[in-house]
């Protein structure tokens, strides 16, 4: 029997392993269906422990950390929460957390690269990113040698640090423009011969990788939680948490009630919150002024079949709008009470939890999972020297020839003709 099939969430048609779209399904997300209905953790390092429910057969042994779930004491006490669990994604050796790029994007990059490997993909992979995704994919490609083109907004290039030496398989192009400009340029390049698109939210290896946050939490706690908190930009992590919950409910050993999704966004740039609340909390100058602009995505998969709206509806979930002041206060308190530095995006989830406690959306005895989507970057820098990845060149999104310019850069970098 096949390990899994990939099925359209709209029409039910079955597709091949790295399919991103269904011709009958508009933009409906495709979803993996595993033949193993119960989760049996494998004796493998890092994320590969959840091999049963990852759409790959082999593993990338090196550098593949996983989520570490533990019960909060310090922060939980501040708010009188009796059953708060932290799903930590990042670097924190004292707790065996070893994600070397310090965010849960490592959970997306490794399964994606492994799937690409198993499909014998030789084309150049294209990734557009506001930073954390680019760092994670660059890290994974340095290990596997897969050629990678990163298209990153100029203002996010500072996030592209690495613990590796200069890497001949990663070509970085910066774009004068925002994340959306980078996505649309990358999309045009990826549709050409010689390139392959990683697919973003549509890529099941990415979503099932992120889904391991919920798997780790449920296995550690022994049950599904009542509530799940996360900061979102595209909302892919929220969709993944919901998909994991459905699989765990079907497993039969973790309870049958789906955890309520509580997804936080940062005002003044909160497109998902706006769609959910039917308001307009997106200023014209976005992502300027954000606490962390990795949380800005101008076209999140909200109303597509199997997307964020379906995930919220199915779980009775809700969105939160978090101000910079709230995020900053939550970040300080969390770091002080839990003893680890966290990524600013993760502080938005902490602040959403604070709002939920104060608004009575959660009760003191409820079992809560708080996804710390990134942390331990300062901690990592105590242990490892890091350096910036050098851009090969920069283009302007306004330049009508930007696409051709990137192609020239790529030809020069990899020494190929495209
Ligand atoms: C990407 C990212 C998020 C948002 O993830 P979604 O794709 O919207 O689920 C949150 N926190 C950090 C640190 C991130 O890198």
Describe this entry's structure for a reader.
Its cofactor is pyridoxal 5'-phosphate. With 418 residues, this protein is of the alpha/beta class. The chain has two domains: 68-103 and 206-380, 3-Layer(aba) Sandwich (Rossmann fold), CATH 3.40.50; 124-193 and 386-414, Rossmann fold, CATH 3.40.50.1100. Helix content is 34%, strand content 20%. It is built from 13 helices and 17 strands. The strands form four sheets. Strands 4, 5, 6, 12, 13, 14 and 15 form a seven-stranded mixed beta sheet that branches. A five-stranded parallel beta sheet has the order 11-7-8-10-17, sandwiched between helices. Pyridoxal-5'-phosphate (PLP) is lined by residues 103, 105, 132, 231-238, 294-295, 343, 345-346, 373-374.
Low-confidence stretches: none
Number of strands: 17
Instruction: Indicate how many domains the architecture comprises.
Output: 2
Say which molecules are bound, naming each kind only once. Answer: pyridoxal-5'-phosphate
**Bulk shape:** globular
* Structure class: alpha/beta
Distance between the termini: 39 Å
Order of helices and strands: EEEEHEEHEHEEEHEHHEHEHHEHHEHEEH
How much strand content do the residues show?
Answer: 15-25%
The CATH topology label of the largest domain is Rossmann fold
**What percent of the residues sit in helical stretches (DSSP H or I)?**
25-40%
Largest sheet: 7 strands, mixed
Q: Supply the number of helical segments.
A: 13
């Amino acid at each position: 029997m096949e390990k899994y099939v990939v099925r359209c969430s709209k029409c039910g048609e079955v597709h091949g392993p790295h399919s991103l779209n269904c011709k009958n399904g508009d933009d409906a997300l495709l979803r993996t269906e595993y033949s193993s209905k119960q989760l049996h953790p494998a004796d493998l390092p890092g994320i590969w422990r959840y091999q049963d429910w990852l759409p790959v057969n082999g593993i990338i042994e090196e550098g593949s950390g996983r989520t570490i779930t533990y019960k909060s004491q310090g922060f939980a006490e501040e708010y009188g929460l009796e059953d708060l669990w932290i799903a930590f994604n990042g670097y924190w050796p004292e707790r065996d957390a070893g994600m070397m790029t310090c965010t849960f994007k490592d959970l997306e990059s490794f399964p994606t690269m492994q799937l690409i490997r198993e499909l014998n993909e030789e084309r150049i992979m294209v990734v557009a990113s506001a930073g954390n995704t680019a760092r994670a994919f660059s890290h994974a490609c340095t290990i596997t040698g897969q050629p990678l083109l990163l298209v990153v907004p100029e203002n996010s290039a500072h996030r592209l640090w690495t613990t590796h030496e200069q890497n001949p398989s990663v070509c970085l192009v910066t774009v004068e423009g925002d994340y959306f400009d980078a996505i649309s340029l990358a999309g045009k390049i990826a549709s050409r011969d010689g390139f392959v698109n990683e697919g973003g939210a549509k890529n099941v290896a990415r979503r099932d990788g992120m889904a391991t946050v919920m798997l780790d939490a449920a296995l550690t706690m022994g049950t599904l939680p009542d509530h799940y908190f996360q900061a979102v930009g595209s909302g892919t992590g929220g969709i993944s948490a919901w998909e994991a919950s459905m699989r765990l409910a079907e497993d039969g050993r973790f309870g049958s009630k789906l955890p309520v999704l509580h997804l936080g966004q940062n005002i003044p740039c909160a497109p998902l919150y706006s769609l959910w609340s039917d308001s307009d909390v997106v200023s014209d100058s976005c992502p300027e002024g954000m606490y962390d602009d990795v949380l800005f995505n101008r076209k999140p998969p909200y109303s597509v079949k199997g997307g964020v709206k379906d995930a919220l509806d199915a779980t009775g979930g809700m969105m939160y709008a978090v101000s910079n002041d709230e995020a900053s206060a939550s970040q300080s308190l969390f770091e002080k009470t839990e003893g680890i530095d966290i990524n600013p995006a993760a502080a938005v989830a902490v602040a959403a939890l604070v709002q939920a406690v104060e608004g009575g959306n959660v009760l003191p005895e409820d079992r809560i999972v708080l996804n710390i989507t990134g942390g331990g970057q300062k901690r990592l820098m105590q242990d490892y020297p890091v350096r910036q990845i050098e851009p090969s060149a920069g283009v302007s999104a306004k330049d009508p020839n930007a696409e051709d310019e990137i192609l020239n850069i790529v030809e020069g970098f990899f020494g190929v003709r495209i």
